[in-house]
């Protein structure tokens, strides 16, 4: 790997390279969150934060992939992003239903 290439980057390239590394860090953080939560519970757990880190990191990586004009990377991040957002939608829909049931049950005194 030629490290001289890093010193020849434009400002835009440096910003986007930094953006890409931050995106990758967010994406990797989801595994740490999941691992810690599972260790605390002593069972496999996928916390809601996992899906938020997935969506944020995936969106940022998709932006980076589009900037790089990398079709393989774009397709991979796009399909993953659909899954992450769908899971968040399902989680929030379930919470709305639970709140509705709780409100209906609270008035039955």
From TrEMBL:
A single GO CC term, please? Answer: membrane
Q: Does the keyword Transmembrane apply?
A: yes
What are the record keywords, sorted? Membrane, Transmembrane, Transmembrane helix
Q: Which residues cross the membrane?
A: 14-33, 45-67
**Which GO biological process categories is it annotated with?**
lipid A biosynthetic process
The molecule here is called: Lipid-A-disaccharide synthase N-terminal domain-containing protein
Record Gene3D superfamilies: 1.20.1280.290
One of the record's GO molecular function terms = lipid-A-disaccharide synthase activity
Start and end of every Lipid A biosynthesis N-terminal domain?
A: 19-90
Which InterPro entries does the entry mention?
Lipid_A_biosynth_N, UCP028440_lipidA_biosyn
Q: Which organism is it from?
A: Nisaea acidiphila
């Amino acid at each position: 790997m030629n490290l001289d290439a890093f010193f020849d980057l434009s400002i835009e390239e440096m910003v986007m390279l930094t953006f890409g590394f931050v995106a990758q860090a967010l994406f990797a953080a989801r595994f740490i969150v999941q691992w810690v939560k599972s260790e605390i519970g002593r069972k496999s757990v996928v916390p809601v934060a996992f899906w938020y880190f997935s969506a944020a990191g995936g969106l940022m990586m998709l932006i980076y992939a589009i900037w790089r004009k990398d079709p393989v990377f774009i397709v991979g991040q796009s399909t993953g992003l659909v899954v992450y957002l769908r899971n968040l939608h399902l989680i929030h829909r379930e919470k709305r239903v639970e709140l509705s049931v709780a409100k209906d049950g609270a008035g039955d005194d």
